[in-house]
Amino acid sequence: MTTTAITNIAGLVTNDPALGDGSPLGLIENAAVVIDGDKIAWVGSAAQAPAADTAFDARGRAVIPGFVDSHSHLVFAGDRTAEFNARMSGRSYSAGGIRTTVAATRAATDAELEANLLRHLDEARRQGTTTFETKSGYGLTVADEARALRIAAAHTEEVTYLGAHIVSPDYAEDPAGYVDLVTGEMLTACAPYARWVDVFCEKGAFDGDQARAILTAGAAAGLIPRVHANQLSYGPGVQLAVELEAASADHCTHLTDADVDALAQAADTTVATLLPGAEFSTRAQWPDARRLIDAGATVALSTDCNPGSSYTSSMPFCIALAVRDMRMTPDEALWSATAGGARALRRSDVGLVTPGARADLALLDAPSHVHLAYRPGVPLVSAVWQRGVRAV
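Above: the chain's sequence. Below: its structure in token form.
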């Protein structure tokens, strides 16, 4: 295999305290990285870097792990521009919300859905994302949910069955019948393509008992739970996620002290995944990341990229929001967008730069990772390596 040395790195974020300055970011100044095939082979001081077949000069810029986006909804058709415009203009809007996207997704061809997915993946990659999770949830029929997962599984190993996004419009008068479908025939068709099972546990979607039935059935089919929890109101989602040892409780906007304590106690099992793009796009209350971190919870940041409530694929943007409006430090936000996302996906091979890890890296056009929050909106990612291959 060909080896590549990235040299003259002003600041390298490894997320391995043993390699760097002892902080959670494991920062190494004046650093180098050697890539061998699709793995990191060596990390350390540039002055001690071993020889490699090729070299790339970082020219005094920062290198970070590729972002790990652990929550997105990328298999869809259409958009909801009119809904967003009305919301931001203070006007009422009576179109169907998620149901609008369901109708457009059902009407789209497989080729159209895949092309849209690939467009968003390319957009995210150019902003430094090298690992992503994505969900179904815009088909809500057996055939449409299965095809969404099949399309997604061709492009990522982190695929989530979200037949329980909302009650299908086809079952508006029979929500119990829809839960039976989600836990029965739909699950059977979808499980072969998915690693995870998710549910929107919220008023107007699925209550605690329904969510428990869906997640338990998914687990029995070999899928690992994750939960849309406590986004719009206080509810049972976080407690259910912790009880069922879900990999993540996502959103976590409305939390009681008991919810925070539960997430802190389950820090090694259940990650609190915060999605600031959703609050930005809906002018909703911000999650309190400081409260969670100070309590000892593990926190991830993700985009929640979807056409209705968070139509952004930019992890740098979410980092800037987290620092400005969720009381995270720049170091905490970067860790949560890389190592935190990896924790939420129960991955130890991504989200860090250490020997043996997957060679996923982003070069910033800046001397420090702090610029991701310091210069919001500026396209700082200038090169990306994914599985050891220069992708941007």
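The longest strand covers residues 54-65.
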